[in-house]
Amino acid sequence: MASLEQTFEQACASGEIAGAVMIASNTDGSFRFENTFGKRSVREDGDQSPLKKDGIMWIASCTKLLGTIAALQCVERGQLSLDAPIYDIVPEFKDQDILTGIDDNGKAVYQKGHSTPMTLRLLLTHSAGLGYDEMYPLLMAWRESRGEKVSPGGTIASRMTLPLLYDPSSMWMYGCGIDWAGKMVERVNDNMPLDAYMQKHIFEPLGITDMTFDLATRPDLAARMVDMSKRDEQTGKVRYTDSRMPHNGATEPMAGQGLFTSAPEYMKVLQSLLANDGKLLQPATVDSMFEPNLSPSAKHTLNAMLDGNPIFNNAMGGLSVGAERDWGFGGLLMMTDVPGWRSARTLTWGGLPNLTWWIDRKAGLCGIFAGQLIPTGDARVIELSRVFERDMYRRIEAEGGVAESPKL
């Protein structure tokens, strides 16, 4: 059987992927694996030097973990409540209707109002009634009915003040709830911009220096940006792409998708949560991140969606059909042990360009697989990320928590 290193060297040499950065660590840091494979770019006239571990990437929805942490910090201070209605802070949704369809004349059809209040808990767990317009045909049709196009940038208010798609708490649907949670953090902190808030309350406590919502303010990070690649449908090989991403044109920090950073910097967040070291959140709050939150109907929706969408399921959990999943604070919560891999109550999520992170407190292991490849849920990347993760579980078990990793 080929080793992890041989597998990735071959995948990069054959053009299956452009490159990847992989880091894993145990609770006390006595086990640490770091390695990189591939190139910084596959663009013919680009920088095709070896990918470095401090390469800067757009981490997309990996941002949601930090947005969640920021909101939970405000809960700890008493500035926000998990379960009170949000309308005194987010009046935009107080009387928001539920979109039920588009009639034969191309006009939107609504159910007047919503019966269950929207709360921060529901925003953080994708069960508040909100979606992402670019992900759901009904919201796209709603935009069209208004003569609007989906804007890849702008402000949260201009881009994400959307009709609800269901009564809050009744379903699970991936959406912009955490982007709005980030806006709540700003509003209860005297409109302190979210990037400044995170700098003070997340980046500085962890010694994070290479993380930003705005590359224009950090030319040093922009100079280390890893190029995006795309899988060619005809050849199956990767090629360079300059496709516009949802972060393009954003005029304010978006807590659900906006950060740029390197894998080692992001690992500082994962390691802090795994160790429950009190640098970001109180121990009891960290414990709560690994508890299920969904109502029975929302949980049913989540599991039915994952069971019916192999790409999404494989990218963000990979459990067999019928396995139990829920939603913690910050990510998908696996409720089932998988022998030789993740344990029950593992928290995991990822980002659009095929990044994946996980925190397994039972096994005492966390890690991140980071690349820049679209489309999301790429089958080969999913397979390779599993090779990496399972190998980390084997190494930590075989070596008693001490592993040698290449010096980079």
Automatic annotation (TrEMBL):
Is Hydrolase included in the keywords of this UniProt record?
yes
Q: Which family does it belong to?
A: Belongs to the class-A beta-lactamase family.
Q: Where is the Beta-lactamase-related domain?
A: 4-368
Alphabetically sorted, this entry's keywords are: Hydrolase
UniProt KW Coiled coil keyword: no
Q: Give the organism the record lists.
A: Phyllosticta capitalensis
- Output the SUPFAM superfamilies linked to this UniProt entry: beta-lactamase/transpeptidase-like
Q: What is this protein called?
A: Beta-lactamase/transpeptidase-like protein
